[in-house]
Amino acid sequence: MGTPKKKKKNQTPETQFHSDLNLCSKNKDLHGAISLYKSAIANNTRLNHHNLNALLYLCSNSVTDPSLKALALENGFHIFDQMSSIGIVPNEATLTAVARLAAAKGDGDYAFGLVKRMGEYNALPRLRTYDPALYCFCEKLEAEKAYEVEEHMCSVGVTAEEPELAALLKVSSETGREERVYQYLHKLRSLVRVVSEATAKIIEDWFKGKKGCEVGEVNSEVGKIEEAVSRNGGGWHGLGWIGKGDWVVNRTRIGLSGHCCCCGEKLFCVDIDDNETERFAKSMASLAMEREVMSNFSEFQDWLEKHGDYEAIVDGANVGLYQQNFADGGFSVSQLDAVVKELYNRSGKKWPLVILHNKRSRALLENASYRKLVDEWVDKGILYTTPNGSNDDWYWLYATVKLKCLLVTNDEMRDHIFELLGSSFFLKWKERHQVKYTFAKGTLQLQMPPLYSSVIQESEKGTWHVPIADDCTEESEKKWLCITRSSEVLQNKETFQKSNNLSCDDKLLRSCTSTTSHDNMDSLQTCDNENVAVTGKRKERS
Question: How far apart are CA 187 and CA 459, in angstroms?
Fold first, then answer.
């Protein structure tokens, strides 16, 4: 049994204060902390930056308790003034705590002013530094001031997350700023993808409100909208509200074919947009030529310009070496050949492009058992061999991005090469283009990209589908908001029936048309995807 620690003798007042303050902080004892502070001031105990920040933090966290709010506000500002009087320069943590105190008493201007003056203290703001002013302005419906806060955030490279975007969406909705509502829906689509239940409620309230029903254009240029959807990678056009009349808002699920079980709309598997694709390809080529022999990669780029009709690229080494880590394992030509033939059959008789390092292709050609097959691949334009000293990862990745096609590989693309490219849209790109595979008892199984992306989607007709976060692991069971004009519901449902040769369940049809924008939230019904059988196979293309 251990010997109890003895209390240190002859502690300095500063050491004793620090120890006692830590105990108050641990126990969230504001009264005790303030008593310690006042005693320290009376006794001229030296207080450092850490001590005062700890007191400010405790004060700012206590304002949510009505019984402590007045004490926290009064002493919090006094502590901040004390810091200034003894020449302690506030840091980001200091200013964030004081901003929270200011917001607690409804002074968003003071909170935002602290953020704008941070440069004077050589401090950089974080998202938490902006939150007090932003939420204060949103709660007081001071929309223009809230927008100013967001603009300031963007100017210093601080990115809003779902809580901030939801607050901005709500204040925009409640003050009738339809253009801002549209803007923040798209920011949620881009930055958040799947929304919380609280954010879903804000979205529902907008579409069910009077102002939401007044927005939109009847005569929209269909060709222009379709072009925008294609240019953006599918799933949104960004050209503004489309259609007129009341909105129908429902909870729904997405069927196995990617169709909404309420309105029948087919969702997209969303890609990165054309501009992102072009930047991605250029940055990749630039990095590759820094690390490869420039003439070799330039030669590949020129070759690809002349032979760019592929719909799938195969990481040959990854497929050939799959599950070959056993005693007699080596490079499996049969696995690679199975992938090549499967892609050929799926694509309507179009051969894929296999990228393989020159060292491996030479070894295959030297083996009499494989020479004929490899010669066939070369003759049919299936095989491209990368030169000695090269990293074939650059080649197959660049080809996939440049041709906007599928990539067959189990490579998770997590190493330093892919870190150089950044992750802002890389995950979205992988979801849309990567095809994984298995060989179960020697039988090939390709895992194609999903039929649709779990992300907020805006259709060419102006309908919206919003995925809601929950604990469900099955995609077909996840909850979505289906938001469409009442005039579109029957038309979409009839089109869905005809294209799938189905008869829609009457109960489902009623549930999908029963809740318009003026109905009570409690009457909103849930569409069940089990009421509709969906068929059809996704076209395998890039």
Answer: 16
